[in-house]
Amino acid sequence: MSPWATARGIQDEELQKFCSRVVKLLQKEELGPDAVDALQRLFLIVSATKYKRKLEKTCVDLLQTTLCAPKCPEQLQLLCTAILRERSPSDDLNLSCDHVQNSRQLSLVASVLLAQGDKKEEVRSVGQRAFRVLESRQPEGPSLRHLLPVVSKVTHLAPHTLHEDQTNLLSKRLVDWLRYASVQQGVPHTSGGFFSAPRARQPGPVTEVDGAVATDFFTVLSTGQHFTEDQWLNVQAFSMLRAWLLHSSPRGPSSPDTDDKSELEGSTLSVLSATSTASHLLPPQERLREKAFEYCQRLIEQSTRRALRKGDSDLQKACLVEAVLLLDVLCRQDPSFLYRTLSCLKALHARLCGDPARVRALLPIAQFFLNHGEAAAVDSEAILQHLFTRIPCELFHSPMLAFEFVCFCRDSLPVFGRNLDILRRSFPNLFKLLAWNSPALTSEFVALLPSLVDSGTAVEMLHALLDLPCLTAALDLQLRLSPAAAERPLWDVSLRNPSCLEASRDPQFQGLLQHLLRATASGTTERLAPLHQLLQPLASLTRVVQCAEAVPTLLQAFFSAVTQFADGALSNQLALLLLERSDSLYQVPQYEAHVHRVLSSQFLVLCARHPSLVVELAKELLEFVGSVSSVHSRETMLTAVVWAVGEYLSVSWDRRCTVEQINRFFEALEALLFEVTQSRPSATLPKCPPRVITVLMTTLTKLASRSQDLIPRVSLFLSKMRSLAQNPAPSSDRCGEDAGAVCTRAAELLTLLKMPSVAQFVLTPSAEVSEPRYHRDTNTALPLALRTVSRLVEKEAGLLLG
Amino acid sequence: MVAYPAGLSHLPHQGLWLPSSVHPGAMVYAFLIHTLRAPQAQDMGLCRVLYSCVFGAENSPDDPRPHGAERDRLLRKEQILAVARQVESMCRLQQQASGRTPMDLQPQSSDEPVPLHEAPVGAFRLAAGDPFQEVRTVVWLGVLSLGFALVLDPHENLLLAEGTLRLLVRLLLDHLRLLTPSANLLLRADRIEGILARFLPHGQLLFLNDQFVQGLEKEFSAAWPR
Questions:
Q1: Is the ipTM of this complex over 0.95?
Q2: Nearest 5 degrees, angle CA A209-CA A211-CA A213?
Q3: Where is the AP-5 complex subunit zeta-1 C-terminal TPR domain (chain A) (predicted)?
Q4: Which DSSP letter does residue A213 get?
Q5: pTM of the shown model
Q6: How many Cβ atoms sit within 10 Å of the Cβ of residue A690?
Q7: Which of B50, B121, B211, B220 has the most A C-beta neighbours within 10 Å, making it the best mutation to test the interface with A?
Q8: Does the N-terminal peptide bond of residue B181 adopt cis geometry, omega within 30 degrees of 0?
Q9: Is A319 on the interface with B (CB under 8 A)?
Q10: Cα separation of A160 and B1, whole Å?
C-alpha cells in the first residue's frame, strides 16, 4: 500500500499509539533520525486528509516546545512547524511569539500563527513582535533577513495594525539596505574549525552581471562569490519594496482614479524634480521613495548589460518589470517623480521595442502611460499602437504572455479613456491570443468582450468569433510556414505535413489568409468559405477543437453585451448574419450543432427586443425558409426562425405587416411542412424531427388566425397531419411517442381553429399579456380568459369524442 | 460527528463582495504539488494534492458554530484541491493542444536533467469567491506526472513568479529526486519546507540572482545532505 493510502487509512487508535511514540521521541534529550522519521510520518498523516486528525494534547504541546527549543535542528523545527501549520486553524494551539528573540525562530512561529485565520488577532501580535525585534537590533544584525518576509506578510495581511513610528522605522531601514549595502563581496563562511585559518585575501568588489566591476551602489543585479548580510537584506528589501510602498503610503494604495489625482499631478509638473541633495531631511516615506526611484533607475541601467548567466538574464527581465511597476507606484504617490520618470521610460520603451526577449516589460510601460499619460500631457497612443499591433501576432503562442496581455487589457479598462478605441480596433489581434490559448483565456474574454464590442465593430466581431476555430488553424499553419522554425516546434507536432501547407501559398488563399490574420478591425467582411475548405485538414487538431468548444460561451457573452445597445438596424444586421453564417461554418466536429444552439436562441432574443425585425427582414426570412435544403443540419435555426415568424409576423407588433406578407409566409411554410412530412425517411435522409413539424403546424395556425381566409386550408392540412400521425406508413419507423406529439398538437390546433376569435386571442396575445397586472388580477385578466377558453375547448373536445 | 458539506459551494464564504483592491499586495498565497493523471487514465484515481503550503491564511469567517475551526480547515483544503484540479485540466489541455505526451519530457537517462524549459507552463485567473475570497492568479508548471503551482495575488510580478516557480521545481526535482521511482515526496516534507523557507519565505517572491541562488542552495545542501 502506498504511504498515502496508509496515512489516510490510519485509525484513531493506531494514531494515538503513534502519537505516544512521537511524544516519547520528542521527550528525549537528543533528537535523532528516528524523531525525524516519526515527524515526517506524522506530517503525512495530518496532511493527507482534509478532515481533522485528533492528536493528543501532550503531542501538540511537545511539537510547540520543540519548535521553540533554541538548540533544535532546523529539520525538526521545520517539521514541527509544518505539522502545526497543517492543522490550522486549530483551537488547541497555545503557541505565542511574545518572547521569541531569535528572528529565525520568530519566522517559524509566525508561519504557524499567521495560518490561524486571525481569530485571536494573531497577525497583530506577530507584527508587533517582529517590530520589537527589528527595533532592538542594529541594521547589521546577523539574521534580520529572516524577519523581513514576516514583516512583509503582516503588512499584507493587516496593514492597519502597524503604528506610524513603526512604519517610519522600517522605511528608514529599507533606505539603508536598498541604497547603502556594501559594494565589497562577502567573506566565505568558514566552519571555524582548527585548520581553517581565515584567509588573508581580501574579497573583491561586487560585479555587474556581465562581469565588470560594479560602477555604482549594490542592487539585486550585482553579483559576487559571497554576499554580506546587508547585501542579503538589500535583496529582501527590494523584493518587498513595492508592497511596502503601497501599504505604508498615507494616500493609500488604491486611489489612482480618485479626483484629487489629476489636481495633484497637474500642479506638480512645474515643481519638477526634488533635488536629492536635501533628501536626508525628508520624512522617511519620501526619502524611501527617493531611494526607490534611484534604485529603479540603476536597475534599468543594469539591465542593458549582457548577463553571463541565463539565470541573471531572466532576473534582468523580471527586474525591468518590477522597476516599471515601482515607478508607476512612485508617480502615483508623488507626482513630482513624473517628469524624471517619463524621459527614462520613453528611452526604455524605444530600447525594448527592438528586443523581443524583453517584450514582457512593455506591458507595465503601457500601463504606466495609461495611468499617467494624461497628467503628463504625453500621448500614449503610439506606445499602445505598437503594443496592440505587434505583440499579439508575434507572440500569441506564449501562454504566459497571452495571459498577461489579456489581464493587462482587462485590468486597464478603467484607464483606457480615449485610447479605448485602439483596444477595440485591435480585437482581431487579441483574438489570436484567445484562439491559441482558449482554455486559459475564455473566462478573461467573457469579462473583456462587453468593453471590446461597440456598434461599429459588432458585425465584424461576430464574424471573427464564428471563425475563431478557423483562426486557430490558420495560426498553426502560419507557424508551420514561418521561416524561423524554433528548435522546438510551436505547432501541433502530432500532425505532420498537412496537405494544405503547399496549397496555402496560392495567391487566391493568400488574400483570405491575410484577412483572417489581420491585426486590426478592417471594417469589411470576407467570405471565408474557400479558406474553411483549405484548412479542413487542420480541423481535427486538438487546439482547434478546444477553441471550437469555447466559442458558444463567447457568443453568449458577445450577445448579452450587444443586445444592451443594439438598435433596430444593428439587430437586423446581426439577425441576417446569424442566418447567413449558420450555413457557413468551419467544419469542426460538434461545432456546428453547438453554435446553432446559441445562434438560434440569440435570434429569438433579437426578435423579442426588436419584433419589427421579422417584418423588415421578411424577404430574407422567406428566402431562408425556402432555401433550407436539409432540415437536419439546421434544425435549431429553422425552428427558431419559424417560431419567430409565428410570434412576430402580426400587425400588433408592426403596423407595416400586410396580409400579403402573411399569405406569402403561409405558403412557403406550408410547402416546407408538406415537403418534410411527405418525404420518405431513408438511410441517407433521417426522419424530420417532430419539433420542426409541430412548430411549423403551430406557426401555420397562428398565421391563419391572423388571415382567416387561410383557416380552411390549415384545418385540412392539420387533419391530414393528424391521420398521418395516427396511421404511420408501415415503412416508416416513426416511433409512437413522436407521432403522438404531432397528433396531439394537430388536434389541439384544430380545436382552437374552430373558434377563430379565441384562436386569435390565444395565438396572438397582445403585448400587454406579459405585464404583471395580467397575471395578478384574477378578475380582469389572463387567468380568467384562459379558464374560459379551456372550458370551451374541453366542451368542444367532449363533443368531438361524443 | 459533523455532517460535512459535499461541495465547496456550501462552505461559508465571507467577503464575497469585497472588491479585490482591498489588499493590492503582491505576495504568494499558496504553493502546491499535486498529481497529474495521464490523459487517457482520467477515471483512474483522483487528482491528489501531495503537498501544499498556505502562507498566511485568508481571515476565517466568523463562524460561531462548534467545529468552526474544522470547517475552516476543510474549506482551505477544498480550495487547494480546486486549484489542483484546474491546473490538472489546464495542463492536460495544453499538452494535448501541442500534440505531445507528458512522456516526451522524460530524459533518456536518469542523469540528464529534465528539460524544464520545455515543460508545459501557464497561468489563469480565479474569480473572487471561487474558490478564494479574493481574486487570485495561478501560475503552474507540469513535469511528467507532477503539477506545481503558485497561487498569487493578482498584482504580482508574473515574470518573477514564473522564474521562481521554475527555480523551485528545479530544486525540488534535484534535492528530492522526485522523478526516480523510489523517491518518496510524501515523507520528505522537511526538504520541501527547507527549500520554501529559503527561496519563498512566507510567500515572498525574491529577486535572486544566480549567485544568491547558489549561496542559498549550498546552505540548504549543508543542512540536508543528499
A1: no
A2: 100
A3: 444-792
A4: B
A5: 0.88
A6: 19
A7: B211
A8: no
A9: yes
A10: 39
